[in-house]
Write a structure and sequence with these properties.
D-Maltodextrin-Binding Protein, domain 2, 5-stranded mixed beta sheet, ModA/WtpA, metal-binding, alpha/beta, molybdate ion binding, ModA
Length: about 250
């Protein structure tokens, strides 16, 4: 004779499931293009570990700022700089107390061709290349860092006529990856995984060559009471997320 499942146990099980569903939430996250690969991994692990979902959009920090100013319903901004989140907080569009540096970016001179870029960046002084891709320094912190580096090297005037500007670091990487530009100043995270350069050749630009690329996060006003937003900001400070971030070449 089969035994029926006790009603009280069934009721308790349903209550637990409903409680979990009630506490699960989602948040829309605007993510700087350089942070695409690590954030995709982090978001998947975050959902697995917490049940909350991060809905990701990728692009230029400058464009995200314009969209946020015009009322775009993002809940969190993961910027490529620290000035944009600070500005958002001062303008009353974000929660100032939530701001923190989730990563410090590293600039790299990269070529798709193996052996083309030396470990000192001396390739910049040669004349056997036609184009170099650089993110628009007015919109992208990595582009500004690239121009500061060229200035330190005394090569700005020499390189300027060969420069192809990308509107963000994602497009800049595509110019170099496609071979349309023999060289590109890109984010180390775009060409590194698990602590190694995936392909091609690279010069990791010393941090002393440009201002630090502090990448800050901020919760926007639309998500100040969002459980997923709070959970994601906490998660980004945790060991699992930091291990992923470090594997793509970022510092803290």
């Amino acid at each position: 004779m089969s035994q029926s499942f006790p009603l009280r146990h069934l009721t308790l099980a349903c209550a637990v499931l409903l409680a979990g569903a009630a506490h699960a939430d989602e948040v829309s996250v605007a993510v700087a293009a350089n942070f695409t690969a690590p954030m995709q991994k982090i978001a998947a692990q975050f959902e697995k570990d917490t049940g909350h979902k991060a809905v990701l959009s990728f692009g230029a920090t400058g464009k995200f700022y314009a969209q946020i100013s015009n009322g775009a319903p993002f809940g969190i901004l993961l910027a490529a700089d620290d000035t944009t989140p600070e500005k958002i907080a001062k303008e009353g569009k974000g929660v100032d107390a939530s701001r923190f540096t989730y990563a410090i970016g590293q600039l790299v001179l990269w070529s798709k061709q193996a052996g083309y870029v030396d470990d000192k960046g001396a390739v910049l002084q040669r004349n056997d290349w036609q184009h170099i891709a650089i993110a628009n320094p007015k919109l992208a912190p990595y582009g500004l860092a690239a121009m500061e580096t060229l200035g330190k090297l005394g090569l700005t005037a020499q390189v300027q006529p060969k420069t192809v500007l990308g509107e963000n670091i994602g497009q800049t990487y595509q110019f170099a990856a496609s071979g349309n530009a023999q060289l590109g100043f890109v984010a180390l995270s775009q060409v590194m995984e698990d602590g190694k350069i995936r392909e091609g050749s690279a010069w990791i630009v010393p941090a002393s060559m440009h201002e630090p690329i502090h990448q800050d996060a901020i919760v926007l006003n639309s998500a100040k009471d969002n459980a997923a937003a709070k959970a994601l900001m906490d998660y980004l400070k945790g060991d699992k997320a930091r291990a992923i971030i470090k594997s793509y070449g970022y510092a803290f």
